[in-house]
Write a structure and sequence with these properties.
Blueprint: E1 2-8, H1 14-32, E2 35-41, H2 45-51, H3 57-65, E3 68-71, H4 88-98, E4 103-109, H5 122-125, E5 129-135, E6 143-149, E7 156-160, H6 165-180, E8 185-190, H7 196-209, E9 216-221, H8 222-231, E10 238-241, H9 243-254, E11 266-268, E12 273-275, H10 294-306, H11 311-326, H12 344-354
Parallel strand pairs: 1-2, 1-3, 3-12, 5-10, 8-9, 8-10
Antiparallel strand pairs: 4-5, 4-11, 6-7, 11-12
Helix pairs in contact: 1-10, 1-12, 6-7, 8-9, 10-11, 11-12
The chain binds nicotinamide-adenine-dinucleotide, 3-isopropylmalic acid (IPM) and manganese (II) ion.
Length: about 350
């Protein structure tokens, strides 16, 4: 089969890890008889440089016409002085909104070979396998009013967290549907004891849970949830939460897998899914060969599964990643003291060679 994919190669380490994921995908195509056609487009920092716009209209149009979008991280210090509305990050939010991607799935799964790679004790994290379901196109990231006003000591910044009932219903329902395919437990995370938007979230989640008597359900307040993630990470199956809490908790949870460089993601909801690693453009290591391409490669595995229904091919990528880790290959973020680190390209090539 032929698949048309818009590729947004991003900034910083983006192009480096994106190239490796495309090579791996091509190999999957050769072995399983598919053709992946890539349409490169610009968004983020590179689009600001070229078009003075982090999300040019033609890019969004191309994404809407594709079968899936493969996106590398965007942003970096070069664009840090720009006002928020025109930053690379605004392009990312525009993409998510423009494609109606209300659900961001961030699987937090520890590969056995990496039990020693985390800063956390192996006995605490061994067997961790959870899914963070993050609401992606509402909440404080999109609420109005927002802005910076006034001058000098009177200068102030304002943002608004707003959740509407249907926005919470659809994401919590999706979390329950996904939990039915897993260990059948949902933890809804909010701050209902302080925030009204969270009280609404809490009430709606509670109501939705009544439709799923076979799935265990619990609420957790976000500060406690942050602590439980480190204390008893295996107690989680599916965690569903707001846009901002999901952003923060997923970076925290990535350390349960050994590195932020291991955390893929799928953004779903509209006609076209978007696949990107959970991490950023890592400007501190861009161009050094130190980037871990596995989160990006695992994001392509999610694309095969969720957008193309190619489960076997998706498994082939995950198995290849598992095999290279079992063989002891480690990028710098995963390598322990005295362990030799391979480069981004070497890691990509090793995964490619393991595709069966
Ligand atoms: P970051 O995730 O880029 O980096 C945090 C730390 O993790 C750094 O030390 C970095 O070197 C390391 N790291 C991240 N990914 C890695 C990988 N694959 N391999 C090895 N090490 C890795 O976070 P930041 O520094 O706060 O953000 C940098 C820029 O990225 C900012 O402009 C931010 O807005 C942007 N960002 C973009 C996305 C996205 O496009 N979805 C996501 C997060 C951050
Ligand atoms: C992420 C990133 C983005 C977010 C930024 C870069 C807009 O941190 O995808 O986790 O906050 O959603
Ligand atoms: Mn983030």
């Amino acid at each position: 089969m032929n698949f048309h994919i818009v590729v947004l190669a991003g900034d910083g380490i983006g192009p480096e890890i994106c190239a490796e994921s495309q090579k791996v995908l091509n190999r999957v195509g050769e072995i399983y008889g598919h053709k992946f056609e890539y349409e490169p487009q610009d968004a983020g920092g590179i689009a600001i440089d070229k078009y003075d716009n982090p999300l040019p209209e033609h890019t969004l149009k191309a994404c809407l016409a594709a079968q899936a979008v493969l996106k590398a991280p965007m942003g970096g210090p070069k664009w840090d002085k720009i006002e928020n509305k025109k930053r690379p990050e605004a392009g990312i939010l525009g993409l998510r909104k423009g494609l109606d991607l209300y659900a961001n799935l961030r699987p937090v799964k520890l590969f056995k070979a990496l039990e020693g790679a985390s800063t956390l004790k192996p006995e605490v994290i061994s067997g961790v396998d959870m899914l963070i379901v993050r609401e992606l196109i509402s909440g404080i990231y999109f609420g109005e009013p927002r802005g910076i006003h006034g001058e000098g000591k009177d200068r102030y910044g304002v943002n608004t967290e707003i959740y509407r009932t249907p926005e919470v219903e659809r994401i919590v329902k999706l979390a329950f549907e996904l939990a039915k395919l897993r260990r059948k437990k949902v933890t809804s995370v909010d701050k209902f004891n302080v925030l009204e938007s969270s009280r609404l979230w809490h009430d709606v989640a509670e109501e939705v849970s009544k439709g799923y008597p076979d799935v265990a359900f619990e609420h957790q307040i976000v500060d406690n949830a942050a602590m439980q993630l480190i204390l008893k990470p295996k107690s989680f199956d599916v965690m569903v939460t707001t846009n901002m809490f999901g952003d923060i908790l997923s970076d925290e949870a990535s350390m349960l897998t050994g590195s932020l460089g291991m955390l893929p993601s799928a953004s779903l909801g509209g006609k076209v899914g978007l696949y990107e690693p959970s991490h950023g453009s890592a400007p501190d290591i861009a161009g050094t060969g130190k980037a871990n391409p596995l989160a990006m490669i695992l994001s392509t595995a999610m694309m095969l599964k969720y957008s193309f229904q190619l489960q076997k091919e998706s498994d082939a990528i995950e198995n290849a990643v598992e095999n290279v880790l079992n063989k002891g290959l480690r990028t710098a973020d995963l390598a322990g003291k005295g362990e030799k680190a391979v480069t981004c390209t070497e890691m990509g090539a090793a995964v490619l060679a393991e595709i069966k």
